[in-house]
């Protein structure tokens, strides 16, 4: 559910109406026809025969940038598919995990629902259209509990191993030991070691929905708010360039889902353990199994 929603919303807003539909299925089964569909799409955008949508300048810039390299149409499509994958894949995984964590932690779900319902009531007069029309609705200061939940989800599920290449000889000092690094050596970071350090994150295996809220950080960790080492989006000069977009996107999906529908685990899930991380996945781990849920509409929206 989450991957389809995340992928189709990116496709609608950024890639426009002529982007091939059902791409989430094509990507899942790695359908070989996706290449030709993307080639057709790129050529339509290039010929300006596809109308106007918010992400059009970005797609045009991509087409112009790759034109300067002598690439075949198929290679251009392949690069586009990998950028498209970058736009959606990690966000879709984080969103799926976040929903599963909420379903397995009813108190956390109640906190999120309370935040969403009160924001909707006080700020948007219970009108979901007012929410989606507000450009700041999902900005950095909005829905702080959902934002904390995104970080907490990433802390538990990120298996990214960012790497860097040393540009000079140096000694990496840690406590009383030091490791000599030579110019040109590659270094890989073990983020999970940091994210599961009980000194930094007490009860590291637990999903604590408001762990990253400034107001509760000191209480949970004894660490000054905002100073916890967190590397879900990497760090430094090469930290994730799409992180603000990704957080907004996930917030939007979770807030609307929680506001518009009641979600619960399907009866058959009761008693089953939360899925484990599939360690053979990149960046954000995939789930070891699918989860069945039931949804029921909470609010009747008009169809403006
Ligand atoms: C929840 C979603 C996402 C997660 C967890 C994530 C995570 C990461 C991580 C761990 C890195 C490596 C950072 C490092 O080496 O220090 C990275 C790099 C990058 N990400 Fe993301 N990412 C997400 C979404 C996105 C999106 C939506 C975009 C584009 C719109 C994007 C674009 C990039 C780019 C361009 C880099 C390379 C940055 C560089 O090397 O300078 N990411 N991401």
What does this molecule look like?
The protein is mainly alpha-helical and 304 residues long. The chain has 2 domains: 2-160 and 196-297, Cytochrome P450 (Cytochrome p450); 161-192, no CATH class. The protein has 11 helices and 8 strands. It has helices at residues 2-15, 23-29, 33-46, 56-67, 73-104, 106-124, 128-133, 144-157, 191-195, 214-221, 243-260; strands at residues 163-165, 170-174, 177-181, 186-188, 261-265, 277-278, 286-287, 293-297. The chain has a two-stranded antiparallel ribbon with strand order 1-4. Helix 1 (2-15) crosses helix 5 (73-104), helix 3 (33-46) packs across helix 5 and helix 5 crosses helix 11 (243-260). The longest helix is centred in the first third of the chain and has 32 residues, at 73-104. The two termini are 24 Å apart. The model has no long low-confidence stretch (mean pLDDT 88). Protoporphyrin IX containing FE (HEM) is lined by residues 86-87, 90-91, 94, 154, 160, 162, 232-235, 238-242, 245-246, 283-284.
Question: Summarize this, please?
Answer:
Belongs to the cytochrome P450 family. 49% of the residues lie in helices and 10% in strands.
Blueprint (SSEs and pairs):
Layout: H1 2-15, H2 23-29, H3 33-46, H4 56-67, H5 73-104, H6 106-124, H7 128-133, H8 144-157, E1 163-165, E2 170-174, E3 177-181, E4 186-188, H9 191-195, H10 214-221, H11 243-260, E5 261-265, E6 277-278, E7 286-287, E8 293-297
Antiparallel strand pairs: 1-4, 2-3, 5-8, 6-7
Helix pairs in contact: 1-5, 3-5, 5-6, 5-8, 5-11, 6-11
The structure holds protoporphyrin IX containing FE (HEM).
Protoporphyrin IX containing FE is lined by residues 86-87, 90-91, 94, 154, 160, 162, 232-235, 238-242, 245-246, 283-284.
């Amino acid at each position: 559910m989450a991957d389809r929603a995340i992928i189709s919303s990116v496709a609608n807003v950024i890639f426009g109406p002529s982007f091939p539909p059902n791409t989430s299925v094509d990507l899942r089964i790695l359908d070989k026809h996706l290449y030709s569909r993307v080639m057709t799409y790129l050529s339509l955008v290039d010929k300006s025969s596809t109308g106007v949508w918010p992400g059009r300048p970005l797609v045009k810039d991509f087409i112009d940038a790759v034109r300067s390299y002598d690439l075949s149409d198929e290679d251009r499509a392949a690069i586009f598919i990998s950028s498209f994958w970058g736009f959606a894949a990690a966000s879709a995984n984080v969103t799926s995990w976040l929903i599963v964590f909420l379903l397995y932690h009813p108190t956390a779900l109640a906190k999120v629902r309370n935040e969403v319902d009160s924001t909707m009531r006080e700020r948007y007069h219970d009108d979901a259209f007012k929410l989606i029309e507000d450009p700041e609705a999902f900005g950095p200061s909005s829905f702080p509990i959902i934002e904390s939940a995104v970080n907490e989800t990433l802390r538990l599920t990120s298996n990214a191993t960012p790497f860097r290449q040393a540009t000079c000889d140096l000694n990496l000092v840690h406590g009383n030991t030091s490791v000599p690094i030579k110019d040109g050596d590659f270094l890989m970071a073990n983020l999970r070691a940091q994210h599961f350090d009980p000194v930094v994150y007490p009860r590291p295996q637990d999903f604590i929905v408001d762990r990253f809220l400034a107001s509760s950080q000191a209480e949970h960790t004894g660490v000054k708010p905002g100073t916890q080492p967190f590397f879900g989006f990497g760090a430094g000069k090469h930290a994730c360039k799409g992180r603000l977009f990704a957080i907004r996107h996930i917030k939007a999906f979770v807030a609307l889902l929680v506001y518009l529908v009641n979600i619960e685990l399907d009866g058959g899930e009761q008693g089953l353990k939360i899925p484990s991380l599939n360690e053979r996945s990149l960046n954000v781990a995939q789930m070891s199994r699918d989860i069945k849920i039931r949804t029921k509409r909470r609010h009747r929206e008009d169809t403006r």
